[in-house]
């Protein structure tokens, strides 16, 4: 019996995850999720039951998306324990599925964004973070990886290289006001920190959430940009390219059909 079963097994699991091609961001997220489970549950993860894991998930007042993400982490970890012959059957395999929300994206009114950018943004880094999320639709990990040198001039104006998940890259147009904010930053990472010289995605998300009204998150800025972009263009493919989604089905979840669009749909002559 090892002195720290969760720590020892988690270290081996994360090492295998990285060797099999998982991105550094995915490895960090899995570490955070499973280390939290280990702290809360204690004991030996090989002794956990489906009921134990289900009770742990249910004990937190998380959004469905957060529960779904932690459930996926448990399924991956316990599936690996089966693969390496540490256990015979995964207790996470039959955890209740979290149904995908059908009510559309979480809405973030313009007034809330104004609050995030001004009155509640005590940290001087937050206004730029918020605009990268709300104007360009960037994920918190993409904001974390952004450098001043990613901004460049093209034939139509300013554009930015966005370094997405899994090494994927895309180019997005940048409004002049936002371009000036980026140009005012020192060379290198827009948000320097202690992890590889830049703030972690988790800390970017924390700073944004602190600046916004209670219950709202950094990812809601991305949802807002998707909705605004669709409202202005009516083209899901354009929104898909802007957000960097591999599947247009994912983009559809982000887009909220506004009341104005619905009213236009029933207007006009027969």
Strand order of the largest sheet: 1-2-3
- As an assembly, this protein is single chain
Question: How would a textbook summarize the main sheet?
Answer: 3 strands, antiparallel
Number of helices: 13
SS elements, strand count? 3
Poorly predicted parts: 100-104
Distance between the termini: 76 Å
Structural class: mainly alpha
DSSP helix fraction: 40-55%
The H-level CATH homologous superfamily of the largest domain, spelled out, is Intergrase catalytic core
When the domains are counted, the total is 2
CATH class of the largest domain: Mainly Alpha
Principal-axis shape equals elongated
- Tell me the β content: 5-15%
Give the overall pLDDT as a whole number.
82
**CATH architecture descriptor text of the largest domain:** Orthogonal Bundle
Give the helix/strand layout.
Blueprint: H1 5-19, H2 24-41, H3 50-58, H4 64-83, H5 110-117, H6 126-136, H7 140-145, E1 151-153, E2 158-163, E3 169-174, H8 176-183, H9 201-211, H10 219-233, H11 236-243, H12 248-254, H13 259-265
Antiparallel strand pairs: 1-2, 2-3
Helix pairs in contact: 1-2, 6-10, 10-11, 11-12
Structure write-up:
It is a single chain. With 270 residues, this protein is mainly alpha-helical. It has 2 domains: 5-83; 110-220, Orthogonal Bundle (hpI Integrase, Chain A). It is 53% helix and 6% strand. It is built from 13 helices and 3 strands. Strands 1-2-3 form a 3-stranded antiparallel β-sheet. α1 packs antiparallel against α2, α6 (126-136) packs parallel to α10 and α10 packs antiparallel against α11 (236-243). The longest helix has 20 residues, at 64-83. It is elongated and about 60 Å long. The termini are far apart.
């Amino acid at each position: 019996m090892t002195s720290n079963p969760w720590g020892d097994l988690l270290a081996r699991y994360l090492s295998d995850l990285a060797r099999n091609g998982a991105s550094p961001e995915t490895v960090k997220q899995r570490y955070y999720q499973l280390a939290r489970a280990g702290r809360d549950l204690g004991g030996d993860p090989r002794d956990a039951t489906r009921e134990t894991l289900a009770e742990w998930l249910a004990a937190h007042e998380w959004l469905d998306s957060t529960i779904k993400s932690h459930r996926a982490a448990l399924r991956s970890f316990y599936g690996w324990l089966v693969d390496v012959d540490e256990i015979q059957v995964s207790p996470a395999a039959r955890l209740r599925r979290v149904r995908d929300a059908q009510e559309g994206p979480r809405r973030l009114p313009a007034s809330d964004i104004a609050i995030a950018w001004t009155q509640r943004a005590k940290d001087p880094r937050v206004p730029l973070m918020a605009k990268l999320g709300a104007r360009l639709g960037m994920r918190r990990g993409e904001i974390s990886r952004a450098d001043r040198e990613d901004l460049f001039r093209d034939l139509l104006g300013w554009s930015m290289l966005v370094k997405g998940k899994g090494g994927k890259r895309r180019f997005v147009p940048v409004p002049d006001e936002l371009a000036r904010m980026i140009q005012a930053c020192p060379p290198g990472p827009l948000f320097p920190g202690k992890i590889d010289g830049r703030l972690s995605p988790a800390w970017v998300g924390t700073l944004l959430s602190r600046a916004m009204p209670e219950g709202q998150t950094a990812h809601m800025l991305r949802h807002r940009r998707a909705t605004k972009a669709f409202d202005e263009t009516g083209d899901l493919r354009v929104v898909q390219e802007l957000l960097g989604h591999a599947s247009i089905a994912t983009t559809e979840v982000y887009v909220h059909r506004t009341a104005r669009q619905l009213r236009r749909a029933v207007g006009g002559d027969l």
